[in-house]
Specification:
- This protein has 727 residues and is α/β, with parallel strands linked by helices.
- The chain has 26 helices and 26 strands.
- A hairpin with a 4-residue loop joins strand 23 and strand 24.
- The chain is globular.
- It binds iron/sulfur cluster.
- Iron/sulfur cluster binds next to helix 1 and helix 6.
- Iron/sulfur cluster (SF4) binds next to helix 1 and helix 6.
Length: 727
């Protein structure tokens, strides 16, 4: 008997009439998949496929990549610049020169009246690295505001901060190939199959070749937890306690790599003294993982020939996010698991080019991982740009999450948002709305004119998207990938690179400013020169090499045939003495926790169909149809006494606001927790508190307390939401 589609209804792939496939790189997440876009006879993009021979994705794409060609002509794109006197007026279309002149004049007016730092810029993790470099040059070398940051504060700031504290520099040390060598993998707060499906596929391929234990630490029984050998359902926000307890067992039982600790680290004594306080019995009372499991995991990890830890937002989006990253690094340093095949601390990055802005965006310092606080770094960049080093601020300014409160207090009067949508992405939506309303001047530069934050802008600049332009992205494993230009920009939208260059011209009359190359390849050559001899050396790369090798990992030194898979293979770190730091991490409980009035934890995260605030994926029929509405996962045992049924609606209330969502009953969440995807506007961030990590300033999106009640009248619920929004 014959079974299967092969014999009955073979899958037929419709002929889209592709006459040419063009190489580029996916613009959603930071996995860095090489993609080919199919063009028909008219030049329209009609199909996408994974590029064969690309080491990252080996011909595969996830559902977002498969439909990415639909982006070019998706709904809501902006095609001409718009201006208005106040946010209560209607927008009027204008030409580029008028819009850019007005932006330049308003920045100068605000800076003249209130000081240089009263105008802030918040960028993104979405645009090309050359664009980040150019924006950094504009902000640091021409406009001269120190309140310049990126929305990467909302996703990767804790990873950056943790790497810097442990190793002396940002830069993920490992790579995807580590899956093929590791003997134990531990994942913290990462639902890899949904968040990064192609990285998960790489892991699965490695597991099919060779079995090794996978341990998933997550309060929810995620898809990843379901396939793990061990699932540790940790109490939200207590990762540092668990990691301290693992280190406690490893040191106490003599399982540490003492030779590595002695040769390559500082601070071992103080670290040992701190973790001595975190015995498994005491720790289990805080983190919710029983003492025997703590001991078993510690032994398994320390005895593995090679062990690695990956993590995503479960660690980063916490009041202890930076400490969580440092705690992971501590674990890998005491077990000698850095820089060897299968041994690493690998943060799985979010946005396609969050790495590019970290490297070259100058948001936390100067380009090429240089510091504003270091005289030699300041002078090098000033000389290269041909300006006075004294024009640079002495230390970094406010992070994105501090820029918005500074608008509230009147310190900041004007704001330029580049591909950033705080009305959906920031915690506590009601507060953000009032904050944006206070601005004297708001510029929104985005590919979509219907982005929620644009309701509050005075000028809208329509930007080209993804492969409507050319440049590079850096992925999670430090691989620089080329985004080739596939289509012309939509309407009269312009590449961000062009917009930054045009704004720079408006400042050239005020003071001596750096020169700005006319092409992205010209900017790439500047980056190469500035990177020579540094950890993130790009000097051996060229656009042709990036396309031919389908991505090259930095460092890639001049003349090298290719890049470098791992950092710190020689045990030399970026601190002056070449040693990493073991840092003691006392745990301080400072979260909003469930109580009688608000008895549930509220957790949030991603679904595979959507990307961040749905600015793009919310417009794509095939993605939206699989995940069209906000919903909440709730445990049936918790729902029953409240009279809440599967498929009904419920109202969630926190100390900030409320939201109404559809209920999905599932055992995936514990009885005292609910989970809501974070992508939807006017949903989870109406509720979230977002206390900030003291080191990274990243918000704790995943830890706050909520009350739940049935909302049987869906019409009333909808009206309520609209009314709350109007308020
Ligand atoms: Fe694009 Fe990420 Fe999907 Fe790869 S995994 S196709 S990079 S969204």
């Amino acid at each position: 008997m014959l079974f299967g589609r092969k014999h009955k209804n073979p899958i037929k792939i419709a002929d889209k009439g592709v006459v040419e496939w063009k190489y580029t790189t996916c613009g959603y997440c930071s996995t860095g998949c090489s993609i080919e876009v199919g063009l028909d006879r008219s030049g329209a993009a009609v199909a996408s496929r994974g590029a064969a021979g690309a080491d990252v994705n080996r011909g595969k794409l996830c559902i977002k990549g498969i439909f990415e060609h639909e982006l070019f002509e998706s709904a809501g794109r902006g095609s001409v610049p718009l201006m208005r006197r106040s946010r209560l007026d209607a927008f009027a279309e204008t030409d580029w020169d008028s819009a850019l002149d007005h932006v330049g004049a308003e920045i100068k007016r605000i800076q003249a009246a209130h000081g240089r730092d009263s105008f802030a810029i918040v960028s993104t993790g979405q645009i090309m690295t050359e664009e980040f470099y150019t924006l950094g040059k504009l902000a640091r070398g021409a406009i001269g505001t120190n309140n310049y940051c990126g929305n990467t504060t909302l996703c990767m700031a804790s990873a950056v901060s943790g790497y810097k504290r442990s190793f002396g520099s940002d830069g993920p040390p490992g790579c995807y190939e580590d899956f093929e060598h590791t003997e134990c993998l531990m994942a913290f707060g990462s639902n890899l199959p949904e968040q990064h499906p192609i990285i998960f596929w790489r892991l699965k391929m490695a597991l099919e070749q060779r079995k090794f234990p996978v341990i998933v630490v997550d309060p929810r029984v995620t898809m990843f937890a379901q396939m793990a050998d061990m699932h540790l359902p940790i109490t939200p926000g207590t990762d540092v306690v668990l990691l301290n307890a693992l280190a406690h067992v490893i040191l106490k039982e003599g399982l540490a790599d003492q030779a590595y600790i002695d040769a390559h680290t500082n601070g071992a004594e103080a670290f040992a003294a701190l973790v001595a306080q975190y015995d498994p019995v005491s720790a289990s009372k805080i983190c919710g993982i029983d003492e025997d499991t703590i001991r078993n995991v510690a032994r398994l990890y320390a005895k593995a020939g090679a062990a690695m830890t990956i993590w995503t937002m479960g660690i980063n989006q916490s009041t202890h996010g930076s400490d969580g990253v440092v705690a992971i690094n501590n674990l890998n340093l005491i077990t000698g698991n850095i820089g060897k095949p299968g041994s690493t601390s690998l943060s799985i990055t979010g946005q396609a080019n969050a790495m590019g802005t970290r490297e070259w965006g100058s948001t936390t310092g100067l380009p090429g991982y240089r510091y504003l606080e270091k005289d030699t770094d300041r002078q090098e960049v000033a000389d290269f740009w041909g300006i006075d080093a004294e024009f640079f601020p002495r230390q970094r300014g406010l992070a994105m999450t501090d820029i918005l409160p500074a608008i509230e207090t009147g310190q900041i009067k004007g704001l330029w948002l580049v591909a950033t949508n705080p009305m959906t992405s920031m915690p506590n939506t009601a507060r953000i709305r009032k904050t944006l309303e206070k601005l004297e001047f708001l510029v929104v530069q985005d590919a979509y004119r219907d982005v929620e934050t644009n309701e509050y802008s005075h000028v809208y600049l329509p930007a080209a998207v993804w492969a409507e332009k050319e440049g590079v992205f850096t992925n999670t494993e430090r691989r620089v990938n080329l985004v080739r230009n596939v289509q012309k920009p939509h309407g009269d939208s312009k590449p961000d690179f062009w917009i930054f260059n045009q704004i720079a011209k408006r400042f050239a009359t005020e003071r001596k400013i750096p020169s700005f190359p006319e092409t992205t390849e010209g900017a790439f050559e500047e980056m190469k020169a500035l990177s020579k001899g540094r950890m993130l050396d790009y000097s051996g790369m060229s656009y042709a090499m990036l396309e031919q090798q389908k991505g090259v990992q930095w460092p890639c030194t001049e003349g090298a045939a290719s890049g470098t898979q791992r950092l710190y293979a020689d045990g030399k770190f970026q601190y002056d003495d070449g040693r990493a730091k073991l840092i003691p991490l006392p745990y301080v409980e400072n979260n909003e926790v469930p109580c009688d009035d608000y008895p549930f934890w509220l957790n949030s995260g991603r679904v595979v169909e959507h990307f961040h605030t749905r600015t793009r994926t919310g417009k794509m029929g095939n993605l939206n149809k699989f995940s069209p509405t906000p919903y909440m996962e709730m445990n049936p045992d918790a729902a029953k006494p409240l009279g809440i049924a599967h498929g009904s609606y419920a109202r969630l209330t926190t100390r900030r606001g409320d939201a109404v969502v559809m209920v999905q009953l599932t055992q995936r969440v514990p009885r005292d927790m609910v989970f809501i995807p974070f992508h939807f506007h006017e949903c989870v961030n109406r509720l979230s508190l977002g206390l900030l990590d003291p080191h990274s300033r990243q918000p704790a999106y995943k830890q706050c307390a909520v009350r739940i009640e049935p909302a049987p009248d869906q019409h009333a619920a909808a009206v309520h939401n609209v009314a709350a929004r109007a308020y």
